Amino acid sequence: KMKGSDNQEKLVYQIIEDAGNKGIWSRDIRYKSNLPLTEINKILKNLESKKLIKAVKSVAASKKKVYMLYNLQPDRSVTGGAWYSDQDFESEFVEVLNQQCFKFLQTKAETARESKQNPMIQRNSSFASSHEVWKYICELGISKVELSMEDIETILNTLIYDGKVEMTIIAAKEGTVGSVDGHMKLYRAVNPIIPPTGLVRAPCGLCPVFDDCHEGGEISPSNCIYMTEWLEF
Amino acid sequence: MTQAEIKLCSLLLQEHFGEIVEKIGVHLIRTGSQPLRVIAHDTGTSLDQVKKALCVLIQHNLVIYQVHKRGVVEYEAQCSRVLRMLRYPRYIYTAKTLYSDTGELIVEELLLNGKMTMSAVVKKVADRLTETMEDGKTMDYAEVSNTFMRLADTHFVQRCPWVPATENSDPGPLPPAPILVISEKDMYLVPKLSLIGKGKRRRSSDEDATGEPKAKRTKHSTDNKEPIPDDGIYWQANLDRFHQHFRDQAIVSAVANRMDQTSSEIVRTMLRMSEITTPSAAPFTQPLSSNEIFRSLPVGYNISKQVLDQYLTLLADDPLEFVGKSGDSGGGMYVINLHKALGSLATATLESVVQERFGSRCARIFRLVLQKKHLEQKQVEDLAMIPAKEAKDMLYKMLSGNFISLQEIPKTP
User: Fold this and answer.
1) If you measure CA to CA, which chain B residue comes closest to A94?
2) Contact with chain B for residue A171, Cβ under 8 A
């Protein structure tokens, strides 16, 4: 009898080990091992008390628990990484980092512009590598968690999607500080290429009832209060 | 044409030309191409009035005619051309900035009259300018002619197509409507006139063909009692050239915003050099060598050749990709990437609309989706770093405003 349960334990342990640091859900363990639920639960409790496995709450579905080997670091997809503390997305923290990175890049670009050197030097000194930004943020000490260079790169990417920063990738010799696989990512603060476009500077571009407006209707250009106000500059 | 566009055309025609022209014009916009009698019948206006209205519309390039088989002439309205009337003030203002008051008035006269001879324009503009000058001073015809020629050289005004002079004295039966032609090299050819008294008859065209607008002839016969030296040579404003100018301005200011003043001046110089040599719909300008650009920089712009080369290299390497390097001869051959530039400007305009309408976080999602083409809900949340609930809300707001579309793909098993 003992041997039987040992074999089952070994099987479950194997399945959990195979799942690596992503962990595996108890239901999936059942499918893989074909053992009844009650048995699985008994074995899992056993292994947990022997400190061979542990349960980690998954950030993707807060009710789900995944099991993994005790001494493994759970993968980021499970814990949410640096941006999650206890399943909550720390949007304020992300926002602060976003602003700080941008300010750093902005100042760098401004200093480069004001240095009035020849244009090549001006441009090159307005760039900062992801490593430089990472070092700056770490030294600021605003983060309680340790942030990796990749974490900073995800923040810098959001600045790209904000249209405030542009990125170039250059080839870098292996061993250069901040280079990954022979490449380095450089970031630079930029201005938008056009001012806010004409349509949205007139009231119509932002009007909530744009689609209902037509001459002769209840909402029309001639009796529009926004238009009257706007024309009275 | 949408209902709103037709309504706008109707209002424009009414304001500029009156009710009858408006009726005929709108009818043609709605129904497409039609012959004279059908127009008269369908709109219930007399044949005479329809003819007059069509004259006005053709004079202003708003209606074109075509001879179909069996000799039927059909008239077609150009709705987009009618809408261009909204831009007249901007065209006039552009002429003012480039060629001062003289240029402004020349373009204004041409736009208001549709087509005019050069002598008529010069006389009219000189009279108008003299009126605004101090007592005793007058505007010399020569100065106005000069400005007119500069406008023609830079292609802002062009000659109207005309009836080619026939070789044989007996042309045979006249076609139902004159076929007007113009060759590329004649389009900007200014007739040699000395407009201080006498002028030479340069070219006479077949004015007596049927269908020639009566309104044009009566207007000119009342204006000058003396024989007009350039009779039959009519000029019109070249709207496409103005559009090209606006395009160039947009590109230059984009470069100024993204880089600096000097870079934008270099780009402006390159565009100015390509003004006439590159067709307006081309994807790239002609390659320009760094030496040529250096020679064409505006007088007083003191940058050394070396510095210019540096700027050109920077422009060519910039992620904007407005300028490209096409070769190494002559110190480096550079082109302006027109299609890319226009595409980037269009994208920036879209992003600006989303930003002002929905807020900067929505703008972030919009730019993200624009770059990555297709994304799942979860990917949007992760890459934009916006909490799931807010991201979902924003995506649906943009979805209902038709800025984003949704496509379901079956999950791969």
Assistant:
1) B385
2) no
Give SS3 for B34: strand
At B214, the amino acid letter reads K
Decide if B383 contacts B368 (C-beta within 8 A).
Answer: yes
Which residues on chain B are in Cβ contact (under 8 Å) with A61? none
> Residue A35 falls within a domain, yes or no?
yes
Residues A99 and A147 in one domain: yes
Query: Which of A158, A196, A214 is the closest to B352 by Cβ?
Result: A196
CATH number of the domain that residue A95 is part of: 1.10.10.10
Contacts of A196 in chain B (CB under 8 A): 352, 355-356
Residue B192: count of CB within 10 angstroms of its CB: 10
H/E run at residue B65: strand B63-67
The CATH class of the B3-77 domain is mainly alpha
Q: Do B353 and A205 touch (CB under 8 A)?
A: yes
Under an 8 A CB cutoff, do A94 and B353 touch?
A: no
Tell me which CATH code domain B240-339 carries: 1.10.10.10
- Distances from the Cα of B320 to the Cα of A192, A193, B207, B312, angstroms: 11, 10, 53, 13
| Between residues B165 and A150, the one the model is more confident about | A150
A84-85 and A165-171 beta bridge pairing:
unpaired
Total of domains in chain A: 3
Which chain A positions have a beta carbon within 8 Å of B384's beta carbon?
158, 161
**Chain B, nearest residue to A166 by Cα:** B319
pLDDT tens digit sequence for B329-361: 878 888 888 999 999 999 999 999 999 888 888
Q: Which residue would you say has higher pLDDT here, B15 or B186? A: B15
Please report which confidence band the pLDDT of residue B14 belongs to, taking 50, 70 and 90 as the band edges: very high
Enter the tokens of residue B251.
């590109």
Q: State which fold the B86-165+176-198+232-236 domain adopts.
A: Arc Repressor Mutant, subunit A (1.10.10)
Which candidate in A62, A166, A193 is best for mutational testing of the B interface (most B CBs within 10 A)? A193
Query: Rounded to an integer, what distance in angstroms lies between the CA atom of residue B340 and that of residue B350?
Result: 15
* Separation of alpha carbons B347 and B360, rounded Å: 16
Domain boundaries along the sequence of chain B: 3-77, 86-165+176-198+232-236, 240-339, 359-401
